[in-house]
Amino acid sequence: MKKILSTVFAMICIVSMTFAQSKTVSEFSDTTTGYKAFLYQSVIRVMNKDQNPDFNMLIRDLDHIKMALSEHVGADAKQTFYTIDKGVKAEGFEMIMSFNNKDYKCNAYELESRNGKSTWVTTFMTDGYAGAMEMKGTLDLKYIESLSSLNYEQLESMIPSNFKNKVEKKMEEKVVEETKEEKH
């Protein structure tokens, strides 16, 4: 009986986790070459440079943030973005916001699970990279101004310099290639 209850409980947990995460973002994170980060609330709390209590209130219902960036540039970055974006839409995420200009694209989506908790996914692309970010939980928007207490330098320092260097090198190679094509 204990074994049956344990099996049923495990199956319920697995099913509820399936509803709470983006399969597309997980697959992208698992297969892309580039940079990946998984930040729990406790790690984000450490980035509160001013020890602002409102910042802690802002993230109190946040479980984690998962981020994955690819090393693709140019047309490859564009294709990666569209593939991720199409997959997120196919999962039933609802688009809530979109930014689109010649330099970058960014789409934000929400999916509410059966337990009422939302999963948020952002897909984005610039010339330098394409990627996705998944946020499980919510931010208390009454405290949004406290986001200024986030230590952006510490957050950026988490991205390894070898990843930044690879992307910069690929971007430089792309510019050289485009310059050669223009001369012909």
Major beta sheet summary: 6 strands, antiparallel
The portion of residues assigned to helices is 40-55%
Choose one word for the global shape.
globular
Spatial order of the strands forming the largest sheet = 1-2-6-5-4-3
Distance between the termini: 76 Å
Flag low-confidence runs.
1-19
Number of helices: 7
Q: Please tally the β strands and state the result.
A: 6
Backbone CA Rg: 19 Å
Topology as H/E string? HHEHHEHEEEEHH
Structural class of the secondary structure composition?
alpha+beta
> What is the count of structural domains?
1
Estimate the strand proportion: 25-35%
Mean pLDDT across the residues is 79
Description of the structure:
- The chain is of the alpha+beta class and 184 residues long.
- The chain has one domain (22-177).
- Helices cover 47% and strands 27% of the residues.
- The chain has helices at 2-20, 23-31, 41-46, 53-58, 74-90, 152-157, 161-183, and strands spanning 34-40, 62-70, 94-100, 104-112, 118-126, 130-137.
- Strands 1-2-6-5-4-3 form a six-stranded antiparallel β-sheet.
- The longest helix has 23 residues, at 161-183.
- The radius of gyration is 19 Å and the shape is globular.
Brief account:
It contains 7 helices and 6 strands.
Give a quick set of tags describing it.
184 residues, globular, alpha+beta
Strand and helix map with partners:
Blueprint: H1 2-20, H2 23-31, E1 34-40, H3 41-46, H4 53-58, E2 62-70, H5 74-90, E3 94-100, E4 104-112, E5 118-126, E6 130-137, H6 152-157, H7 161-183
Antiparallel strand pairs: 1-2, 2-6, 3-4, 4-5, 5-6
